[in-house]
């Protein structure tokens, strides 16, 4: 115990020095900007300096010890495990995507805040202490022991890899987003630059390196998240406590929304988007003739421009339109349907930020409410079932520390989540009051900068040279990253936010990569294929799998399958449906057996994936196929109940588990059994 407290004291001292040094580093860069240091130089220094810090910790923490590599030697104090869990948890979705979702969805976006924080209550009550009492290294380990053998282990392994991989793609996408904007490289190149930062930590030292890196990353990401919104709060209200005063700004936004609702130019632009949607509907109805007619019209216009020696820019524009025209009737139908849906969305009045469950009809409001509830449920249950989060509770010295680390994780996560709604409100106020209604010739630089990355777009539909709200497109993933520029803050703050976004994405990506590689090397190779494998061989297999998975995930991220928040939500649905029923019933119901668990995991996961496939456009699905209007991000709302029901029914219809398995449940559930670890 004395050694543990001394180790904890040393850690506090090291990270206090580290935090002070980082704050000094920010101050020096601020002085550098004041003295004329370029924005490009600031962006490069911020990003590469922080990656070097993480790489240094990774190199210093390198290990070939199995316990250190898989579970950090089971000696991480609760406070630091809480920080590492918070960093592991607060991914690019939390840091980059959450405030953006609250910006656009307003009240509806609170489903993410409610679900994610509520999920940690389930972790503390239902899972963390019991999994730590069980010991071992991974979640499939528990499933294999509790449900007698490799069949349940392999199903759990497949689900863990799938959920973690989808989540990992979202993180690498976030890394590419940050690096491409602030180092001015192509998005695809930014992906692989960030990938190097991810690999250097997890590749060398496994969970040991990842844990201490994640603590360092939490310090950076929370400073980066709080600084801009605190400055912005002081700038707008005179009070540097955004969490307490954003309500006053929200009332001003409501007044501005009333103005935008009836402003003639805004009404006119929305009307024109309505006409555009009707035009797309007509073209879809008249296919294939409409596609042939459009192609012929563009060819004729191009010939006329060439004959009349039109400006090269106009000719190039027409050539690009001709080149981008759909090539087949099916492609045209799909693209025009998507464009029609976008035009219809812009034709609607802007949603009220503080309105709960908005809808044009009572039925639409009911669907919005059902989606809110389904999403909260999936995020709560998914939080309690994510393998890379649950693995963190194997790293504490004991069960008591596992419980305490859940408390600390909740506290450190709370700091960000209580700030995200303020971020959304202050950013929206800046856009609504200072950007909308301004001349297109005098737009701030951030519009062009983020336009180059494809995350901000402007279309002067009515040709008046003034920016209307409906003519502005901002991707949800840009709100936090662009807030310092939107608010006119020094560029060093924008660089700090980029470093924070990178820290959030890298910390979660490290944990996810480790989860996948450990599952493949430990649960598949060591437990199933070659139980006699040496320690050295197991670590070589783990590291090689880690490398392969990272490259494949980067390739998938380069396809830009959807925004960060959707991909993360899908990972939660997969984890919730596959793991939560089997884990909870495995801990609290002795009668749950192998056939029931396997059938429940397969049924829950199967219906979840099926629902996503039939409703999401990336897979060729459509919301026309939705059940009760539930969006694909909450597909787990169908998988979780089915999983519970299947496990209970199949377990009751098949023989009960043997006595040694029931004794294992007692051992995991109750303190101070002979040979057990007390609470």
TrEMBL record:
Stretch list, region Disordered: 342-364
Family membership: Belongs to the sodium:solute symporter (SSF) (TC 2.A.21) family.
Pfam (any one): SSF
PROSITE patterns the record matches: NA_SOLUT_SYMP_2, NA_SOLUT_SYMP_3
Organism of this sequence: Thauera sedimentorum
Transmembrane portions of the chain: 15-35, 41-59, 79-104, 110-131, 151-169, 189-206, 218-236, 372-394, 406-426, 491-520, 540-558, 564-589, 596-613, 633-653
Protein name in UniProt: VC_2705 family sodium/solute symporter
InterPro entries xref list: Na/Glc_symporter_sf, Na/solute_symporter, Na/solute_symporter_CS, Na/solute_symporter_VC_2705, Sodium:Solute_Symporter
Intracellular or extracellular location(s): Membrane
Domain of life (superkingdom): Bacteria
Keywords, comma-separated and alphabetical: Cell membrane, Ion transport, Membrane, Sodium, Sodium transport, Symport, Transmembrane, Transmembrane helix, Transport
Record PANTHER family: NA(+):SOLUTE SYMPORTER (SSF FAMILY) (PTHR48086:SF5), SODIUM/PROLINE SYMPORTER-RELATED (PTHR48086)
